[in-house]
Amino acid sequence: MAARSVCRAGSAAGRALLWGPRPSAALLNLTRKRGAASYAQTLQNIPETQVTTLENGLRVASEESSQPTCTVGVWIEAGSRYEDAKTNGAGFFVEHLAFKGTKKRPGSAFEKEVESLGAHLNGYTSREQTAFYIKAFSKDMPKVVELLSDLVQNCALEDSQIEKERGIILQELKETDSNLTDVTFDYLHATAYQGTALAHTVEGTTENIKKLTRADLATYVDNHFKAPRMVLAAAGGISHRELVDAAKQHFTGAPFAYKGDSVPALPRCRFTGSEIRARDDALPLAHIALAVEGPGWADPDNVVLNVANAIIGRYDRTFGGGKNQSSRLAALAVEHNLCHSFEPFNTSYSDTGLFGFHFVSDPLSIDDMMFCAQGEWMRLCTSATESEVTRAKNYLRNAMVAQLDGTTRVCETIGSHLLHYGRRIPLEEWDARISAVDARMVRDVCSKYVYDKCPAIAAVGPIEQLLDYNRIRSGMYWVRL
User: Fold this and answer.
1) Of 64, 95, 158, 275, catalytic
2) What are the tens digits of pLDDT across the range 197-222?
3) Which of 44, 146, 222, 312 is the most buried (most CB within 10 A)?
4) Predicted confidence (pLDDT) per residue in 64-85, tens digit
5) 18 pLDDT exceeds 50?
6) Residue 452: left if φ>0, alpha if ψ -120 to 50, beta else—which one?
7) Which tops the pLDDT comparison, 35 or 48?
8) Model confidence over 233-256: pLDDT tens digits?
9) Do 342 and 369 contact (CB within 8 A), yes or no?
10) Residue 399's Cα: distance from chain center in Å?
11) Rounded to whole angstroms, how far apart are CA atoms 224 and 263?
12) pLDDT tens across 259-280, in order?
């Protein structure tokens, strides 16, 4: 009896020592108010994005901060959507060659000069934009601008480098084929936008990569690497005035005129409800993506659809929480062992988009997972609640503030926003748009894009259990009495 009393006393003393006295309700409220004020102040104290347009149409944009480093990059309105069936892959090929020397810095001289600054050079190509950017010390910003101008204006396109990179790209294509998630999304674009430019893969086809010539690549650069299609973006410890001066010095010679009627036009890409199935029973898991047509970049419905995706949530077997996760679909996946992972997506382009979900499951769980995922879509269309909308909005706010993490993410946001929206949308404005969303808006917008719409489906792997298209199509609405 005495021993038990000592244990209880020890436990109470330990809790008091670890936790201390409980704070009063007034103190807790004060702490919450300070947290809210801190978030609001964070949004208001973000430096203004300054934009200057040069005479040749190049837009120069920057966000100044006290960082010891900076990221400077060129974002170009060019990608696989601007290619045709014969030249698909040219943009990706040019991106590879851009790092392999310029007319002023042949061979590896370009990369060595970047490395001598202790800088990091990177780039990427997507369906609608191409980017090259360098992260370096702030004091080296003028030199970085000069290097980027040389890269985009004087790409050497040497025959020897073309043949060398051709082999590297062909090897990359083989490696990409082993990434079933990427393969599934390429199939999804191929069926959803069949017969249009958005059906093209970014990397191009193996046949095209083998056939593309120096003339094809030079034509691509001449048509797309024009000053009005470019944004020179920077973030970090830089001065906007100095950035503009450096741009005037090195980018003034960037071409801005087109020959005849060679101005690249954005081809219209229609969405088609359809499916692609690549059955392979030798694979252990099935990869399935389902999507409906979503809005373009500038459509305000995007914010509401992002809230809807946050309600659906995402799941992977490595996550903790089990059945206690806030996502209803994740809790079902855990309880009934429906899938290995799932994730919703909202991929936007200039005038269209794909809103949907992707999941990876065992062959015998496909039907159950598809049923539950479509049921979650129908629930959002008919009975989304205010409590889950509030939770989703907080999740989006957290993701939004995470964009402030590092100069590279800020620089990429600036460059992409100017290409997509024509301006940098401040986080305070995004926060206001998110705050305006309520449960009724989620129900209305989801009904607009999802309810009784024909989906596009891409499936790879052991997919025998995936029901036929008409059965999946019937899951896009509820018969209610």
Assistant:
1) 95
2) 999 999 999 999 999 999 999 999 99
3) 312
4) 998 899 999 999 999 999 999 9
5) no
6) left
7) 48
8) 999 999 999 999 999 999 988 777
9) yes
10) 12
11) 9
12) 655 556 777 899 999 999 999 9
- Count how many residues are written for the chain: 481
10-19, 356-365, 465-474: least confident range = 10-19
Q: Catalytic: 335?
A: no
Map the chain to HEC letters. Answer: CHHHHHHHHHHHHHHHHHHCCCCCHHHHHHHHHHHHHHHHHHHHCCCCCEEEECCCCCEEEEEECCCCEEEEEEEECCCHHHCCCCCCCHHHHHHHHHCCCECCCCCCHHHHHHHHCCCEEEEEECCCCEEEEEEEEHHHHHHHHHHHHHHHHCECCCHHHHHHHHHHHHHHHHHHHCCHHHHHHHHHHHHHCCCCHHHCCCCCCHHHHHHCCHHHHHHHHHHHCCHHHEEEEEEECCCHHHHHHHHHHHHCCCCCCCCCCCCCCCCCCCCCCCEEEEECCCCCCEEEEEEEEECCCCCCHHHHHHHHHHHHCCEECCCCCHHHCCCHHHHHHHHHCCCCEEEEEEEECCCCEEEEEEEEECHHHHHHHHHHHHHHHHHHHHHCCHHHHHHHHHHHHHHHHHHHCCHHHHHHHHHHHHHHCCCCCCHHHHHHHHHCCCHHHHHHHHHHHCCCCCCEEEEEECCCCCCCHHHHHHCCCCCCC
pTM, entire model? 0.88
